């Protein structure tokens, strides 16, 4: 009887040793174009009365991603990244070639050959920053660059220690029903080979601790339904500007009230005042 029991136990253990469900692994090589990876499983296998041994390297394992229609989110897996590996119920060799319904040609079930990477994971020895714990975050692990969709105020926050680059072969539009604010401690530069247009029904504010430069080979147009204000320690119109701007109201007051010296006494004020048509009704300067 004991011999029979032992035989049955060995048979069950041997069968289960070839039945795989899911295991944690580590990326050894990743192909971002074909979305395949070589993966080393991290849990060793151990047979009865034998020493534990590493599983063989799993090669060209399909890597799952977020894919729908013409859209995809591709994770940039690197050597050493930790992943979860799933083992398909039946053979997937033919299915993964074209993504069509196929009949399995083997009797494999939950085999090592039918592994699929379904996502990454972090060991408990590592932690993410506590910032934005309640928000949706796409970020580097140290949060030095991150995109955050905040839970409470529906705010989308893009933050990085490096530059933010937006490139397009056609138009780039930024629209808002509120204020559009650009702030920088360094330079703010807008360059265009064609028109550079900023339009707003409300305020448009550009603030910089350094230079704010707008450069265009064509027309540079600033339009506002309200006031358009340019502020700085000095405001220069032209790269070689050196002449001071005239204060229109002050000039009119001087012209209308000035007198000339004369041997018989100072002259009176001009008989006809300089009209308001001599000054702009739109452009004003700060005293």
Q: Can you summarize this structure?
A:
Helices cover 10% and strands 29% of the residues.
Strand content: 25-35%
General form:
rod-shaped
Low-confidence stretches: none
- Computed over alpha carbons, the radius of gyration is 36 Å
Helical fraction: 10-25%
Task: Give average pLDDT, whole number.
Answer: 82
Report the CATH C-level class of the largest domain: Mainly Beta
Architecture per CATH nomenclature, i.e. the level-2 architecture of the largest domain: Beta Barrel
Q: Could you state the CATH homologous superfamily of the largest domain?
A: Gp5 N-terminal domain
Specify the number of helices: 3
How far apart are the termini?
108 Å
Examine the coordinates and then state which fold CATH places here, giving the name of the CATH topology of the largest domain.
OB fold (Dihydrolipoamide Acetyltransferase, E2P)
Q: Would you write up a description of this structure?
A:
The chain is mainly beta. It folds into 3 domains: 2-120, OB fold (Dihydrolipoamide Acetyltransferase, E2P), CATH 2.40.50.230; 127-165, no CATH class; 174-235, no CATH class. The chain has helices at residues 2-17, 95-98, 248-257, and strands at 22-31, 36-41, 58-62, 66-68, 71-73, 82-87, 115-120, 136-139, 145-149, 156-160, 180-184, 188-192, 196-200, 204-208, 212-216, 220-224. The strands form 6 sheets. A 5-stranded antiparallel β-sheet has the order 3-2-1-6-7, with no helix packed on it.
């Amino acid at each position: 009887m004991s011999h029979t029991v032992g035989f049955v136990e060995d048979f069950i253990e041997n069968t289960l040793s070839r039945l795989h469900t899911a295991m944690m692994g580590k990326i050894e090589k990743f192909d971002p174009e074909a979305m395949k990876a070589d993966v080393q499983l991290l849990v060793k296998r151990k047979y009865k009365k034998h020493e534990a041994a590493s599983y063989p390297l799993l090669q060209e394992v399909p890597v799952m991603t977020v894919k729908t229609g013409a859209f995809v989110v591709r994770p940039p897996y690197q050597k050493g990244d930790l992943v979860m590996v799933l083992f398909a119920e039946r053979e997937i060799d033919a299915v993964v070639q074209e993504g069509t319904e196929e009949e399995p040609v083997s009797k494999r079930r939950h085999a090592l050959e039918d592994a699929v990477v379904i996502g990454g994971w972090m060991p408990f020895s590592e932690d993410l920053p506590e910032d934005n714990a309640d928000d949706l975050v796409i970020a580097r692990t140290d949060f030095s660059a991150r995109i955050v969709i905040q839970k409470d105020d529906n705010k989308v926050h893009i933050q990085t220690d490096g530059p933010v680059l937006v490139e397009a072969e056609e138009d780039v539009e930024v629209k808002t029903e509120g204020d559009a604010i650009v702030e920088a401690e360094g330079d703010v530069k807008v360059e265009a080979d064609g028109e550079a247009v900023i339009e707003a029904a409300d305020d448009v504010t550009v603030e910089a601790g350094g230079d704010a430069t707008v450069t265009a080979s064509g027309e540079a147009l600033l339009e506002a339904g309200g006031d358009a204000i340019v502020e700085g320690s000095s405001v220069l119109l032209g790269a070689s500007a050196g002449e001071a701007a005239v204060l229109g109201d002050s000039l009119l007051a001087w012209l209308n009230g000035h007198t000339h010296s004369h041997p018989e006494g100072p002259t009176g004020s001009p008989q006809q005042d300089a009209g308001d048509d001599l000054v702009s009704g739109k452009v004003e300067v700060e005293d």
